[in-house]
């Protein structure tokens, strides 16, 4: 779960569903990751500004736009299974933890 810096939007991921809640209007939008993704991915975290979602994939991880599910970047990883993630406060880096206890930081600047 992530709350936007201005408090206007809350993003939650439950199983395969992404839920966007606009608090001022009460509007709710939900989509299923299996519908918008061309490859299977397992959600790990949402960026602090609620713009991006990082998902683990069979080949590494990817970053997509939270509002639309559109891919913003795909990153290969051949190391141990990635199991946890957190974006930096500016959303430009992604810290990833692996099952072997390693910590890896990736530049994920997106347009």
Automatic annotation (TrEMBL):
<protein>
    <recommendedName>
        <fullName>WD40 repeat domain-containing protein</fullName>
    </recommendedName>
</protein>
<dbReference type="InterPro" id="IPR011047">
    <property type="entry name" value="Quinoprotein_ADH-like_sf"/>
</dbReference>
<dbReference type="InterPro" id="IPR015943">
    <property type="entry name" value="WD40/YVTN_repeat-like_dom_sf"/>
</dbReference>
